[in-house]
Amino acid sequence: MSEGKRARIFITCLVDFLFPSVGRAMVKVLRHYGVELEFPSGQTCCGQPAFNAGFQGQAREVALHFLDVFEDSEAVVSPSGSCVAMVKEYYPGLFSEDEELKSRFDKLASRTWEFSQYLTEVLGVSDFPGSSSESLTWHDCCHSLRGLGIEEGPRKLLHSLEGADLRELEDSRECCGFGGLFSVKFDEISSQMLKNKLACIEKSGADCLVATDCSCLMHMAGGLEKTGSGIRTRHLAEVLAGALDEKAAGLQQEPAP
Amino acid sequence: MTENYRDRLFGFLKSRAVGQPGELFTEASRERPSSAPRCGDDLGARFCSELNAVGGEASDLASSADPAAELGGWLQGLGLKTAVIDSDPRWKVTGLPIREIVEGAGLELERVDGSALPADLARFDLGITLADAAIAETGTIAQCASPFRPRSISLVPRCHLVLVPADRLLASLEDLFEGISSGAEWAGGPEGFASYFTWMTGPSRTADIEKTLTIGVHGPARTGAFLLGAESQDD
Amino acid sequence: MKVRSDQFSRLSSEALQDEFLREALARANASFQDARGDAVDSMPDWEALRQQAHEIKNRAIENLPEALDAFEKNICSRGGEVHYCEDGAAARDTILSIIRSHDGSSVTKSKSMVTEEIALNDHLEAAGLSVLEGDLGEYIIQLAGEHPSHIIAPAIHKSREEVAELFHEHLGSDPKADIPELTRVAQRTLREAFLGADIGISGANFVVSETGTIVLVENEGNIRMSTTIPRVHIALVGIEKVVPRLEDLALLLRLLCRSATGQRVTSYISFISSARTPAEGDGPEKIYVVFLDAGRSRLWADPGQRAALNCIRCGACLNFCPVYGSVGGHSYGWVYPGPIGSVITPHFVGIEKASQLPQASSLCGRCAEVCPVKIPLPDMLLGLRAKAVEAGSAGIVERFSMRVFSLLGRSPRLWRFALACGRPVYKLVARAGLASVLGGPLRRWNRSRGLPLPQKQGFRSWWRAETKKGDVDD
Predict the structure, then answer these.
(1) pTM, full prediction
(2) Distance of CA B146 to the CA centre of its chain
(3) C186 with C167: CB under 8 angstroms?
């Protein structure tokens, strides 16, 4: 069904640095649907850390580099809702003074997809092959949900897994408290928000928490680890790749001491 | 000094305007939004259910076999001593012997016109008025200040009874505002919008302590609203 | 009111230790959220309504001089008097001189955030006037000598026990009184005050250009009292409160009430277009509208931030904000808390006095999602962060790291080099538990969150190996 589809993958700094298994899982799933993938090695970051901190000049420089690397792609796919939201929602606005550049960024934005979005909206997948033996619960990452409108797609994919046991996560639309530098600039508030989130995760009774953003997952995984919880965290791509074969790794392979 | 600031403010705003803004007054204000809540055909039923849902006590006398008895029963149930009624000339055409009903329910009744003062009205247990308009969508009573009715008659007594003439029951907020703009008599007439126009929807309430709902703060704790039948108006 | 917004970190840290406050906030937010949810669900097309409301407020704000001028002409043609004040001091003086010109001595007030903004009560009391807040929540706060912690529920941070204690101390009521009894005590005390007051001061939810009407929305009846009984009514109004036509209110009132308390309409909504006419016995003899600028025109002149003036003060952004829900209103250090407070406070008091507020957000976007007039609050916080950087308020470490970040971000070789070097260093730190020793951001992270360990093989080397393997397979 996706014969001849091509996409460049943007793997994001966090995945590159900490969670390459998420990138590998995304590659596996997309290849399963016959998408021809390319990984431009010149890619760096989306510039979000600078943009969110108010350093728009620096964010612009990084955005221009991103444009350089990805401009003539048929599609750009990334396993991170917040990086994709940066490209789709904020890049064009950063160049509102320059019509030519803005229109190039608009075009880029229209071709950039978050992984689950690409899967459900571009490839039209609603039934995912494979099975899952774990009970799962889904957290809506803020940028995916409110920035990109991703809500039903991933839930449908998870539901379609054979043996799927998708548990309701209370207040799944509430922020986990990460917010990039917010989590360290205002760590006490961030931790309070995390505490509320962890309580809901525990209440869900699921074995594994699933989401679309490694940053939020890292935050919640870090919290679960501190509280000594046995609940695992996995990116959606990992769950789907794991459903294809059971070998995909989780985020928490090597817990810190 | 403040007059000067007006000029400076307006000068500043005009100097910093960006582009050409759209018109301030457009017909868009008067278009009916497709998103407005639907009221259904039975406005009386909607009015009563909305008002009852917020703690008001509404009843449609049009469907009552004996409106006077129903009203009298409600009044008796209040267990109050004194009542004050406005001198709206429309009382004559309601067809209800309101004085007999109120006194029959054991209340002393005094009639006032628009010149009555709040401190005097505060001595009464119950204020009795006629609605200028009512909104089915929300269970709301609307009244203007008038030479016949002081503003505080519906505010300072602990209870308020209002009767709604059938032709004054409107469907929606849009109907109400359209009426005001077209100079409806109930909103002040063709000379312009009344000096004071108030909406009342159920009893006075607060949730200021621990978000706990408490009825009856500064305004009436009990509010009865009775819809009058169309026939009784023709009498 | 004294600005303490630059102490957000300390204030919020203290608030987080307050067990009762957290419970009260959780309870209040849950109840506000449920009520709003039900009210929104009862509407056929909430999103269309929000869009229309956004357009109405935009129309008024874009045409602000014309809208104010029309309102002024219309209310003045019916005997009202309008003043424009540049700042709080001018507004306080204007109000005091109005009161003096009427020989007023006792004032009752209805709940109004804008009067908090200019610390009106202190000023009037210092001038020898008696001033009583009429709204129950505001009255509690006034007795306690505090400030509101929520736009529409000012005493949300107070327990019933605290209120009972306060009333016992000031009014001699039963120290064990329950909530209905406390409400009755306040009602009795305030009733006397209303009946004896000569000046009533209110804010305004809307002022209508076309008819010159002041619109006030409430549940208790205190606004009706303050605007009906005293001889003089003074409305202190932010210049942004104007809407074009009465008809626009059908929509705005629906949205405001539902977003604020989940009601279809509140118990009372008053539309005041003039003082009493000769045939009317009650109602004020004279009405004044005092328009306050105090930073609003400056905000208006900033195209990226102007939409903040569309706010109708429903409080929904507070009720849904996880930061507000954790730290409460007082942490924000001034009058307006929550997301809207974090946006407008820097404009009203100066960004240098409130630089922490725009930073104190995870940018989760719930505020923008629930805002009935579609104010893009997170974008505005981002805009304010950018302004702060432009103004040079970022620290030297942050500035330096952002320089390095952008240098790496546009140089793939350096980027790869940095990642390659960074991974083993980070691994060492994480494995050896050095985060707490190193301090800074890592330590702050590590207080409540474990540090993730990098997996063995980075993505790039895996991809290289993978593509080579692919080539061989082909």
Answers:
(1) 0.94
(2) 13
(3) yes
Residue B21, classified by CB atoms within 10 Å of its CB into exposed (0-12), middle (13-18) or buried (19+), is middle
This complex has an ipTM of 0.96
Tens of each residue's pLDDT in chain C, 474 residues: 789 999 999 999 999 999 999 999 999 999 999 999 999 998 889 999 999 999 999 999 999 999 999 999 999 999 999 999 999 999 999 999 999 999 999 999 999 999 999 999 999 999 999 999 999 999 999 999 999 999 999 999 999 999 999 999 999 999 999 999 999 999 999 999 999 999 999 999 999 999 999 999 999 999 999 999 999 999 999 999 999 999 999 999 999 999 999 999 999 999 999 999 988 888 999 999 999 999 999 999 999 999 999 999 999 999 999 999 999 999 999 999 999 999 999 999 999 899 999 999 999 999 999 999 999 999 999 999 999 999 888 889 999 999 999 999 999 999 999 998 998 888 888 888 777 777 788 889 999 999 998 888 889 989 999 888 755 443
Question: Cβ of C62 and B22 within 8 Å?
Answer: yes
B18 domain residue, yes or no: no
CATH topology (fold) of A6-121? Rossmann fold (3.40.50)
- Report d(CA A251, CA A17) in Å as an integer: 12
Domains in chain C, ordered, with CATH? 20-297 (3.40.50.10420), 406-473 (no CATH)
Pick from C80, C93, C84: which is nearest to C64 by CA? Answer: C84
What are the C-alpha distances in Å from A181 to residues A177, B35, B146, B223, C460? 11, 41, 61, 54, 26
Burial class (CB in 10 A: 0-12, 13-18, 19+), A236: buried
Query: Domain A126-244 carries which CATH code?
Result: 3.40.50
- 3-state DSSP assignment of residue A62: helix
B2, part of any domain = no
Of the candidates C368, C386, C409, which has its C-beta nearest A56's C-beta?
Answer: C386
Contact assessment for residue C312 and residue C253, using Cβ atoms and an 8 Å cutoff: no
Q: How far is C25 from chain B (nearest CA, A)?
A: 10
B/e letters for C291-303, b = 16+ CB within 10 Å, e = fewer, are bbbbbbbebbeee
Who's near C233: CB < 8 A, 6+ residues apart? C200, C201, C202, C226, C227, C272, C275, C284, C286, C287, C288
Question: Maximum CA pair distance of chain B?
Answer: 69
Within a domain: residue B12? no
Compute the count of residue pairs across chains B and C with CB atoms less than 8 Å apart: 285
Q: Cβ distance A81 to A12 under 8 Å?
A: no
- Report the C-alpha gap between B118 and A142 in whole angstroms: 54
pLDDT digits over A26-65, tens only? Answer: 999 999 999 999 999 999 999 999 999 999 999 999 999 9
H or E element that contains C84 = strand C81-85
Q: Do B152 and C276 touch (CB under 8 A)?
A: no
Query: In this structure, is residue B157 part of a structural domain?
Result: yes
CATH number at residue B204: 3.40.50.10420
- Taking 3-state DSSP, the helix, strand and coil percentages for chain B, each rounded to the nearest 5, stand at 35, 20, 45
Residues of the domain holding B108: 42-234
CB-nearest partner of B147 from C83, C153, C279: C279
- Average pLDDT of B181-206? 93
Mean pLDDT of B207-221: 95
Q: Where are the domains of chain A?
A: 6-121, 126-244
Q: Which residues, 6+ apart, have CB-to-CB distance to B167 below 8 Å?
A: B230, B233
Question: What value does the CA radius of gyration of chain C take, rounded to a whole number of Å?
Answer: 26
Both structure tokens of B191: 């000379």
CB–CB contact A253 C408 (8 Å): no
**Whether A190 and C362 lie within 8 Å, measured CB to CB:** yes
CB C450 within 8 A of CB A221: yes
The answer to whether the CB atoms of C84 and B9 lie below 8 A apart is: yes
